[in-house]
């Protein structure tokens, strides 16, 4: 057996066979003087195999995730049945006498370039479909296995170089017991999704794809960030015991499900959850969440071949608001696309620094057609619960004002159309850009609330990529620079009678919780599975006692000094 160490990204222990999820190498050689009849036969057979796989995936997705998610596979099937694409490939095989791989590649690229350059969104989306489908057909031509995560139907641990958010969205929790990746950090979106799926995960384990073969027995220790490959019987027993202990601990926490979130000195805070889809609401309720502090709506736009319609979005928002319960807050973040969250069908230009690029509110203010559709859906859904709207990646007051003005315009438009809209929607911002944290005082006059997005705030403040394990030593949530920014935001909010929450992963971190409590954070939004452990921890903490040491905490020079000091004052 061998053991790898990575970053514990989602709690729990998983023991199962490895399933490697990787796109095969699709490079090929162009061959001349081929027999066209044979090449056409090979092409037809690769297309048929691809079609039958896609039919299966589509049926499976329809059953597990509904029609909306299955739609992308219908679009792929249409491409594979389109004579306007297939005939030119066959013509090329005949005229140039080249192998099917070369003819497929050339013809598909020609169509992709043509569609991508059209001034028509529908056609640009078709370019993305052709690109996806061509990969599958090419893999079959080259006889290299193409992974179909949606079709996994036995208990496995997924092993991948990295998982995109849309890969993660396809994983079926019934069979996928856990996952491990070479790259990534605790705040990469695949790790965040693992926590909302409640499956154990270890990310950033560097060489899992090198060291693990399909079918190896793997133990994922999501509590301590370990990956064991082909463990001995004794090791397996040890981990089965650890798994059982973790289950017992969870049963203890579960007793707090309907209890209030109070500290030892009877101070209330709000413990709410981060979600990515309406399906996650169930986990929020099971884990005693007092609402939703961050609904990442990007996932509505992913795993599809086109933008979600206003009605589709309305249905999702209504489902969340009603599911959570009408009195409980639901903070919905408007589209935060960009960074590692791409939408193929929008065909946005590749950027050198996507995390510093054209994303989130920057994108929405330019593509206000897309933004308005989302805002209308949100406003229409607002009558079904306690909705709060939050804009991501706000860097300037002017961005906030523009976004809010568009929201108010759409509200007026709906009212003119005779559609009811709630009059009590709070409108706030994520604080994830250092400049915004620095002038929080000025922002606090404009917004109804702040939610601190430490996942990004830390990476921008420390100039350390949140997904790069090489610089993860610099990604320091307890660094005094971060704590001073957080404190600045909380004080600014309170001075204007507003509330300050946090929806970055730091809010659910047991080391950070006492510090944030002492700084006066009002709302802690975290993965649903962190809520009960946090509630249990709060019961033992005195807010006033920690707050009395606030200045000392903020004046420490290093993260280590902060952690040591807070440990001293909370354990004494
Ligand atoms: C919550 C945040 O947003 P995301 O993780 O989706 O970037 C954050 O940046 O802290
Ligand atoms: Mg962010």
Shape: globular
CA distance, first residue to last residue? 42 Å
Supply the helix-strand structural class: alpha/beta
The low-confidence runs, each spanning 5 or more residues with pLDDT under 50, are none
Question: If you had to describe this structure to a student in words, what would you say it looks like?
Answer:
The protein is of the alpha/beta class and 572 residues long. The chain has three domains: 2-22 and 148-251, 3-Layer(bba) Sandwich (Glucose Oxidase, domain 1); 36-141, Enzyme I, Chain A, domain 2, CATH 1.10.274; 255-571, Phosphoenolpyruvate-binding domains (TIM Barrel), CATH 3.20.20. It has helices spanning 36-65, 67-80, 83-96, 100-116, 121-141, 165-170, 189-197, 208-211, 233-254, 281-286, 298-301, 310-324, 360-366, 368-381, 397-416, 434-438, 440-444, 454-462, 480-495, 512-519, 528-538, 543-547, 550-554, 559-571; strands at 2-5, 7-10, 13-20, 156-160, 176-181, 201-203, 217-221, 226-229, 270-275, 292-296, 329-333, 386-391, 426-431, 449-452, 499-502, 523-526. The strands form two sheets. An eight-stranded mixed β-sheet has the order 1-8-7-3-4-5-6-2. It has an eight-stranded parallel beta barrel with strand order 9-10-11-12-13-14-15-16, surrounded by four helices. Helix 1 (36-65) crosses helix 5 (121-141) and helix 4 (100-116) runs antiparallel to helix 5. The longest helix has 30 residues, at 36-65. The structure holds phosphoenolpyruvate (PEP) and magnesium ion. Residues 187, 294, 296, 336, 432, 453-456, 503-504 line the site of phosphoenolpyruvate (PEP).
